[in-house]
Design brief:
Layout lengths: L6 H5 L2 H11 L4 H12 L8 H14 L2 E6 L3 E8 L4 E7 L18 E3 L5 E3 L6 H17 L6 E8 L7 H7 L13 E12 L3 E2 L3 E15 L3 E2 L9 H19 L6 E10 L5 E2 L2 E10 L2 H21 L7 E8 L2 E3 L1 H15 L3 E2 L4 E4 L4 H4 L5 E9 L1 H9 L18 H19 L2
Parallel strand pairs: 3-6, 3-7, 7-18, 8-16, 9-17
Antiparallel strand pairs: 1-2, 2-6, 4-5, 8-18, 9-13, 9-14, 9-15, 10-12, 11-13
Helix pairs in contact: 3-5, 4-5, 5-12, 7-8, 9-12
Amino acid sequence: MTRLKSSATISSNEGSYRKIIDQYRPNLAFYDSTYKDLHRHPELSEQEKRTSSIAAKHLRILGYHVHQHIGGYGLIGVLENGQGPTVLLRADMDGLPVLENTGLDYASTDLMKDSEGNEVPVMHACGHDVHVTCLMAAAELLYAARSTWKGTLICLFQPAEEIGKGAQAMVDDGLYTKYDFPKPDIVLGQHVFCLWKAGWIAMSPGPIAAAVDAIKVRVFGKGGHGSSPQLCIDPIVIASHVVVRLQTVVSRELQPGKLGVITCGKFQAGTACNIIPDYADLEISVRSYEMNIHKRLLDAIERIVKAECDASGSSQPPEFNYFAHAPTTVNDKEQTKVLNTSFSAYFKGNTGPMDPFPGSEDFSVLARAINVPSVFWGLGGCDPDKWDEANRRGEVNKLPGNHSAGFAPVIEPTLGTGMDALALAALTFLG
């Protein structure tokens, strides 16, 4: 494994990095139109066929060696350019089952069938179209600038981040074992946030995003006519007690100041108002930064569900299906310092610390699988004028955030900043 640079080395290279990026920065008009196309046609997790083909075609035209269909629609473009470190840049590709309400002339109106066969609206409500476009642009810049660096660059486009499966699926499908390229010395990635002003970059060492588990829970009752509840065991009542009781776990079982989030985001039961069903289904997500707390939350969920079923005389034990997982995203302390030195010098006054957020990412799986450091930073996406006005009114938190129907990153300077950040990060660690 190649030794990575120190922050002292980076501070002396700021001028050369700026010169390289300025000289080789591509025309962003193509990427503006690419972004609009991707935004107009999002794809659900594990169905990113069109998006992945666009990225793959682009990389091939540039001259990268492309490997597709890794863990589904995952792909990598590899550029080997002499002896030196190997840097992996990652972008996720999938959209969300959200009905877009941005009013944009390139808003999505697409429908897709989800994993259960239901036709749902699809939207890029978390900015993965930004991520893909920025990495495509950075790939062009770094290819054009290949005379200025040595090493191997891997551009990775990942499926199924929104369901916490894509990174692990790529690893399990031989990402680091099937293909003849040097293993990464560092894994790098970014995420756009529309509660931050476009042009802003933020990062910090240590935990950045929470671990997450997603659980499907089925509680059983005894169905019958709605007029005769005395002859039934109502699973809706059981499930309702579970949802209410779960709200006390964080407030009464965790030490104050420790992050824990339990959210029941889906509750389905029954087919008609006069029928008591045989079962009710819940989908629950659990988030925390510390694994001992995470285990405590998961144990509490199972304890409460089982206890409520027992208390109501449930007809059979509840079922638990753990269907998604991502570990805590932890930025390597030393390499975050190195990259922060580079970013602070380049973006001059438009960088700052990144507070840990309770959302989750499977990004770190790509680094943990081969025991190398990783750094993940935040990218602002809100129109600067809108953000300044909201900030003046003290209403930044009222802006449409990630996963909302109104999520709409401003195209510029978001794409330009995101492209520069990825290119600068790669140049910081390449030889």
